[in-house]
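Re: Re: token formats

Sure, here are both.
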Amino acid sequence: MQNNLIRGAIAALALGALAACSSTKPPQAEMAVAQSAIQRVSTAPQVTANAPVELQNARDLWSKAQRAMEDKKYEDARRYAEAAEAEARVAESRAQVAENQSRLEAVKRGYQSQPAPMPAPVPAPVR
């Protein structure tokens, strides 16, 4: 009797798991957003120069998302696509930081190379 209850519970869990898997929709929007983000940052020279590791991470995650879609593992595909988009944004941010630091250094160099301002002449005392 107890074995039948256990078998029934296992069968119900298995059917529930199958139903949950089959009801997951393909993450079309997430895939499109991730692909767009990766394409955008891939064409930016400052990203390829200043954030190559992050850009490669985004591409690797994108590849995993595509494989998961092909295997119909939609939850995995969604997670990988979202992670790929986030990593692409990190690459873009890191490139912007590097560019801003470069501009700041240029301003500092320009400021330091200017001659010191001359003090204002002191007026002669009136007698």
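Second one below.
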Amino acid sequence: MTSQDEPQVTTKTLKGSCLCGCVEYEVDGPLRDVVSCYCDQCRKSSGNFVSATAASESRLNILRGDGLAWYGNKLAKRGFCRECGSSLFWLPRPGDGLIRIMAGTLQRDTGLRVAAHIFVNQRSDFQELVGDAPRLINGNHPVGMSDAGPSEDWVANYGCS
């Protein structure tokens, strides 16, 4: 892996929203590069695979949240718009200080790139993997952040990005 292939972080402020605009947010970098997850939970919660970046929870500012709702189970808490159904965020349980942000809800020109594909053995038969990012059968991806990252316990026990 060359230095240009190593995971990066984006440090600018980005805005994002759901499809209908009932949830709007901004997030101040650093943001982790994108991890695409094909695990059963991500597939079921999104209807496909999930591509998510991550930032410190304290760096997320909800600008409009009247449509924001949360659903949780023992592994994660997921934020979505109750009006249009857009999947926006997820938080691991137990928490690690990072909020995962669905990369497609961010404005364009993020400066982010896909840095890893995880749980590729759980993907649907119609899902093709593209690009040169590492393809892993578990959640032990190399994509971290300069100031925080998934805890070792989280990765060992639950795996998802």
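Confidence is low (pLDDT under 50) at residues 1-7, 146-161. The CA atoms of residues 53 and 107 lie 13 Å apart.
- S.
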